[in-house]
Design a protein that fits this description.
The complex is a heterotrimer of chains A (269), B (156) and C (260). Chain A has 269 residues and is α/β, with parallel strands linked by helices. Chain A has helices at 45-52, 75-82, 100-111, 116-129, 145-156, 175-192, 203-209, 227-231, 236-243, 259-268, and strands at residues 5-16, 19-30, 34-38, 60-65, 68-69, 85-88, 163-167, 195-200, 212-217, 220-225. Chain A has 10 helices and 10 strands. By secondary structure, chain B is an alpha/beta fold. Helix content of chain B is 26%, strand content 33%. An 8-stranded mixed sheet of chain B has the order 7-1-4-3-2-6-5-8, with no helix packed on it. Chain C has one domain (2-258). Chain C is 87% helix and 0% strand. Classes of the chains: A alpha/beta (269), B alpha/beta (156), C mainly alpha (260). The B-C interface holds B 1, 3, 6-7, 9-10, 12-14, 16-18, 20-21, 23-25, 27-31, 35, 55, 57 and C 42, 45-46, 48-49, 52-53, 56, 92, 96, 153-154, 156-158, 160-161, 163-165, 167, 186, 189-199, 203.
Chain lengths: 269, 156, 260
């Protein structure tokens, strides 16, 4: 079973303080696919990635990664497991004090003691695959947002991980760099035999490359399926999300007392 | 900034710090041969030590030869016992040496003045743990004034 | 009212205890593992440059001026008692025992401590720390540990330099300008200053201050709320807390070292 699914969440409950983020959710991430995780903002999609990476621990339930239970590993085993995964952060999270080349070389230098010419070859290969070989000597501050994300992607795949997690890769991108990123995620996934988890709320973009998608809302997984299945879904919640309607099962208004009552209070005072 | 330049700057910084320590240790502080050289212990009993303190210097002809290590009260004789660490560089003071508590200037700190006695056959030298017999206590200003007034009265 | 005040006191105590615990854990986890000398020494050298070398200018200039002021003030006071020959020990002892370690620590907190907090806080806000963790590189060992050691090494050296330059400043004013005899200045100073009691105790003090200031600075950065407001608050806290801690600790250490 662990051969089919690289990641499995089993009955995971997680809350931050009083606020419950996930209530008993289960989901499977099959190997070699591009999996989309979608949902309205503020429901903790990033939290899901942090749970998989073992940065935070669930209150209940287990998270399997490649045959190991991530939330039960000790520090050393966890760091060993993390060598098999990587994450692309929203901001790119490039190290600002080193050049693009050194950023990509960083995980290689950190974990393998290879001669400098082999590292150079590896780094140039990775940079070439994201189209930034020419920008190797630039500093991260000299890159545009889209380029920074591509450089961070080159760094994320530097050690040939099995799993790459993308945290809102399309947020704040112009249409051209968005297109580039979409193509890159798909082609890297297929060329390197990765598994990709893409967390996003840009539905049309992510649906164009996903093999399978989960929609999350109200602390639960509210829908799942291939993009085709989801588009044809009857569920009002899924329908609202896919069509981007402002009101529906996910309300426009943050929970509050009724407006009339509140106004009445204001005038009484 | 290149690595090389950073390394040179950091090296210079560390060297400057060590140089500052050496400057403080050698030309500001009193290192003397006493602070870490070998010493031997002598004792002396005084009726009154005045303002003598631990670490007060012991001088022979103005040269510091040691420091006061401890000051205790002998519960038998009720006299102050001063333990002194004297540098091994200065040894073989004769038994007949005398020691007195002196004051540097009118209001200065108090120190011990060691006056080497005469050398003769049959007189031993002061070794580890020896007591100096001939001691002169501190001059206490109030007593001096009292004595002075008393002697004035006596003249009348 | 009273119950509210009690509740607030309880809440503050709990949160202070929790913060102290977290601070201890950060330091422990950063320093626990045996350092990998080959990998870490370039990082340490880089931090020594940032934390130590770049603080040098402010330390040297302040030390010189404080020494000169001590020389001037000391002279005007001592000359009233005809004791201007004691200017040397006055300047040297003030600097070695108190002003060197304390003022260096305060300047260090403002110059290097705040920068450490802001840098680590920004690394947290831009997810660089998280991204290190996900690359299976422990940010505590990679980012925190070298900065901590750089602070521990730099501060005593800076304090020694501060005192040295201050004594030279006192000499400039006292001897060159006001005419205290140079031989007297140095010899009376040497008679009064003791390597163990004065110089070494000052060094011990500055090690203690280095621990406190660097620890507060790196912890505030690591523990900050990763927003621009959180970072600015953490930076302020670093300067305020470490200055207060240094002054309080100074009293305790002085009482222990020179109090008898």
């Amino acid at each position: 079973m662990s051969n089919d699914n690289i990641v499995q969440l089993k009955n995971v409950t997680f809350s931050r303080g009083e606020r419950v983020i996930y209530d008993d959710i289960s989901l499977d991430i099959p190997r070699g696919k591009v999996i989309a995780i979608m949902g309205p903002s503020g429901i903790g999609k990033t939290t899901l990635l942090r749970l998989i990476a073992g940065q935070i621990k669930p209150e209940k339930g287990n998270i399997d990664f490649d045959g190991a239970i991530i939330n039960k590993l000790n520090r050393q085993q966890l760091y060993a497991a993390r060598k098999k995964m990587s994450m692309l952060f929203q901001s790119g999270a490039l190290f600002t004090e080193m050049s693009v080349f050194d950023n990509v070389a960083f995980p290689i230098r950190e974990h393998c003691s290879l001669p400098e010419d082999i590292i150079r070859t590896m780094v140039l290969m990775k940079l070439n695959s994201v189209g930034l070989r020419g920008a190797a000597e630039l500093m991260p501050t000299e890159l545009s947002g889209g380029m920074a994300r591509r450089a961070a992607l080159a760094r994320a795949i530097a050690l040939d991980p099995q799993l790459v997690m993308y945290d809102e890769p399309f947020a704040g991108q112009d249409p051209i760099s968005m297109g580039v990123l979409i193509r890159l995620i798909r082609s890297l996934n297929d060329a390197l035999g990765l598994t990709s988890i893409v967390v996003s709320h840009d539905i049309s973009e992510v649906m164009s490359i996903a093999d399978y998608a989960y929609i999350m809302a109200n602390k639960k997984v509210i829908g799942q399926g291939t993009p085709q299945q989801l588009r044809n879904s009857e569920s009002p919640l899924i329908h609202q999300f896919m069509a981007g309607e402002s009101d529906g099962p996910v309300p426009f208004h943050y929970p509050a007392q009724s407006f009339d009552a509140q106004l009445a209070e204001v005038f009484k005072a | 900034m290149s690595n090389r330049k950073v390394e040179v700057l950091v090296g210079a910084f560390i060297a400057a710090g060590i140089a500052a320590f050496l400057f403080l240790a050698l030309s500001v502080a009193n290192t003397g041969s006493l602070s870490n050289g070998e010493t031997y212990r002598l004792y002396a009993k005084f009726d009154n030590i005045g303002g003598l303190k631990v670490r007060s210097p012991i001088k022979v002809g103005g040269v510091v030869v040691g420091r006061v290590a401890e000051i205790n009260l002998d519960t038998q004789s009720f006299m102050a016992v001063v333990s002194m660490d004297i540098s091994k560089d200065y040894k073989d003071f004769p038994e007949t040496s005398s020691i007195s508590i002196l004051t540097a200037g009118l209001l200065g700190e108090q120190y011990l003045g060691l006056e080497p006695g005469f050398m003769m056959d049959g007189i031993e030298t002061l070794g580890e743990g020896a007591y100096i017999q001939d001691t002169k206590s501190a001059l206490v200003l109030e007593e001096l004034i009292g004595q002075f007034l008393f002697s004035q009265n006596g003249d009348d | 009212m009273i119950v509210d005040a009690l509740a607030k006191l309880g809440r503050d105590t709990i949160s202070a205890t929790a913060t102290t615990g977290r601070a201890g854990l950060v330091l422990f986890n950063a320093l626990w593992a045996a350092p990998d000398v080959k990998k870490n020494s370039p990082l340490l050298i880089k931090q020594l440059q940032v934390v130590g070398v770049q603080s040098l200018a402010i330390i040297l200039v302040s030390g010189l001026f404080i020494g000169m002021v001590l020389g001037l003030q000391g002279y005007t006071i001592l000359v009233g008692y005809g004791a201007e020959n004691s200017l040397g020990p006055m300047v040297a002892l003030s600097l070695l025992r108190e002003l060197g370690p304390v003022v260096t620590a305060l300047l260090f907190a403002g110059r290097a401590g705040s920068a450490l907090t802001a840098e680590i806080g920004l690394m947290k806000a831009t997810e660089q720390l998280s991204s290190l963790e996900l690359m299976a590189v422990d940010p505590l060992r990679r980012v925190i540990a070298p900065r901590f050691w750089a602070g521990m090494i730099s501060m005593p050296l800076l304090a020694l330099l501060f005192s040295s330059v201050g004594i030279i400043g006192g000499h400039l004013v006292g001897v060159e300008w006001l005419g205290v005899d140079s031989g007297n200045f140095w010899s009376v100073m040497q008679a009064a200053v003791d390597l163990q009691d004065d110089v070494m105790n000052g060094v011990i003090k500055s090690f203690a201050f280095a621990l406190v200031v660097t620890w507060i600075a790196i912890f505030r950065g690591y523990d900050c709320i990763p927003t621009s407001e959180g970072i600015s608050k953490a930076t302020t806290q670093t300067v305020v807390h470490s200055s207060l801690a240094v002054l309080g600790l100074d009293f305790v250490l002085t009482a222990l070292m020179f109090g008898e």
